[in-house]
Write a structure and sequence with these properties.
Shape: globular
Distance between the termini: 16 Å
Number of helices: 9
Strand content: 25-35%
Number of strands: 10
Helix content: 25-40%
Structural class: alpha+beta
Largest sheet: 6 strands, mixed
CATH class of the largest domain: Alpha Beta
CATH topology of the largest domain: Ribosomal Protein S5, domain 2
Length: about 300
C-alpha cells in the first residue's frame, strides 16, 4: 500500500484555557496542504506481531528511525489494539521537516492508521480508533480524515466548516531551526498570558468567509492570529526575520503554523505566490516553498 501523509497548517490558533492535567485547550482551523511524506506499507498476515521501519528522505534528520517513530508506533498500537498477528513493514520517505509546526509525524501516524484500516476492515474503527489516535498525539485524530476543520479541546474535537474554505495560495517560510512543541507551551504558560475568548476564532472565520473570494487573503489576517507566536519567537528569534521576509515579498496576510517555526504567507493566487518565492530573502539556513490548501489530504 502506498499512501501520502500531507502536512497541515494552523490557520489561526487560540489558547482558550488549561485543563487540570496541565494540557492547554485550543481552538484552531486546521487545513491539509500539498506538501507530504510518502509511505509504503507491506503487511504479512499471520506472521509474529512486528513492525519494521525504513527511513529515507532529506527531512529525516533528527527523526527516529526505530520503534519511537510515530509511524511505527501507530502500526504497533493498531496491531495490539485489534489483536492482530501480522508483520508490518513501513518505508517512510520524509519530506516534511520535523519540529516545524506542520504536523509531519502526526500525519505519518494518521496515514499508517488509514492504510491499516483499509487492509483490515472493521478490525478497529469508530471511538476505539479515535482513542488510539489521540493516544499517539493531539493532532493525529485530524489526520484520520484530513480536511479543513475547526478543532478544539487538545485537538481531538473536530467540527466541519459551515462554508467551504477556498483554496489558498501560500508561501511557507522557515528560519531553518527546529522548534519542539512542549517548550513553546511551557513558555506560553510562564508568560502569564490571558486565555482567548472561546468561539472567537470561529466568529472571525465566519466574517472572513462572508465576503468576496477576491479579497479573502486580506480578510484572513485577523483569523491567522496565533496565541503561541510570542512564546515561539522568544525561543526562536529567527521567526521575526522570516515573518518580515514574507511581508516584504508581498504576502497579503502572514501566520505561524502550530507552535512554529514555519510561517506562511497568503497570496492572491499561485502566480503571485510564485513571484514572491523568487523575491523572498531568508536568513542563512532558512527555507521557503510554495503550497496550497487542499479540500482533503
Amino acid at each position: 500500500m502506498q499512501v501520502l501523509a500531507h502536512a497541515k497548517l494552523n490557520l489561526g490558533l487560540r489558547v482558550v484555557g488549561r485543563r487540570p492535567d496541565g494540557y492547554h485547550e485550543l481552538e484552531s482551523l486546521l487545513a491539509p496542504i500539498d506538501f507530504a511524506d510518502r509511505l509504503e506499507l507491506r503487511v504479512e498476515e499471520g506472521a509474529p506481531r512486528e513492525v519494521r521501519l525504513a527511513l529515507a528522505g532529506d527531512a529525516g534528520v533528527g527523526v527516529p528511525a526505530d520503534a519511537r517513530n510515530l509511524a511505527a508506533r501507530a502500526a504497533r498500537a493498531f496491531l495490539d489494539a485489534a489483536g492482530l498477528q501480522a508483520r508490518v513493514e513501513i518505508a517512510l520517505e520524509k519530506c516534511v521537516p520535523a519540529a516545524a509546526g506542520l504536523g509531519g509525524g502526526s500525519s505519518d501516524a494518521g496515514a499508517v492508521l488509514r492504510a491499516l484500516v483499509r487492509h483490515f476492515p472493521a478490525a478497529l474503527e469508530g471511538p476505539a480508533l479515535e482513542a488510539l489516535a489521540l493516544g499517539l498525539g493531539a493532532d493525529v485524530p485530524f489526520f484520520l480524515d484530513a480536511r479543513p476543520a475547526l478543532v478544539s479541546g487538545v485537538g481531538e474535537l473536530r467540527a466541519p466548516l459551515s462554508r467551504a474554505l477556498p483554496p489558498l495560495a501560500l508561501l511557507l517560510a522557515n528560519p531553518g531551526a527546529p522548534l519542539a512543541t512542549a517548550p513553546v507551551f511551557a513558555a506560553f504558560a510562564a508568560s502569564g498570558a490571558a486565555p482567548s475568548a472561546r468561539g472567537g476564532l470561529a466568529a472571525a472565520l465566519r466574517e472572513a468567509l462572508a465576503g468576496p473570494a477576491a479579497t479573502l487573503p486580506v480578510r484572513l489576517a485577523p483569523v491567522l492570529a496565533n496565541d503561541l507566536e510570542p512564546a515561539a519567537e522568544a525561543l526562536c528569534p529567527g521567526i521575526a526575520p522570516a515573518r518580515d521576509a514574507l511581508r516584504a515579498a508581498g504576502a497579503r496576510a502572514v501566520g505561524l503554523s502550530g507552535s512554529g517555526a514555519t510561517l506562511y504567507g497568503v497570496f492572491a493566487d499561485p502566480v503571485e505566490a510564485g513571484a514572491a518565492l523568487r523575491r523572498i530573502r531568508l536568513p542563512e539556513g532558512g527555507w521557503a516553498r510554495l503550497a496550497r490548501t487542499l479540500e482533503a489530504g
